[in-house]
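your task:
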Amino acid sequence: MNGETQLTVLLRTLSPVWQPDEYVYATLPTLSAELNPVLLFREAEGWTHVLRRDIADAAGIDHTFTCAWFTLCVHSSLKAVGLTAAVADALANAGIACNAVAAYHHDHLFLPLDRAAEALEILQRLSRS
């Protein structure tokens, strides 16, 4: 499946879902798949892991940015133009940081945990507009 490319359709069918649990960012010198991260990214400085806070705490891993994970359940094409910008703009207008990740089927957002309920309302409102 190629996914949707039309921005109006993408926004109308955004279907944001707030995933359970609290998540954090950590950087480690090596890949640690046993931590069951939801996101891994290799940078020159090390491996970025986004993982559940309780797992990071139990492993004694230093971490930052406690966040909520949202999945935009619309199946967006990796070639779609404007979805990330529209979502980030709506959240930025409310002063909410948005760390977006495009995966194969869906886009994912990591947002400040203390603003998650407000962010969900904004995303739902964006979908209705």
Observations:
- The beta strands are 16-18, 23-28, 39-43, 46-52, 64-72, 99-102, 107-112.
- The helical segments are 7-12, 53-58, 83-92, 116-128.
- The chain has a mean pLDDT of 95.
- Residues 36 and 88 are 27 Å apart (CA to CA).
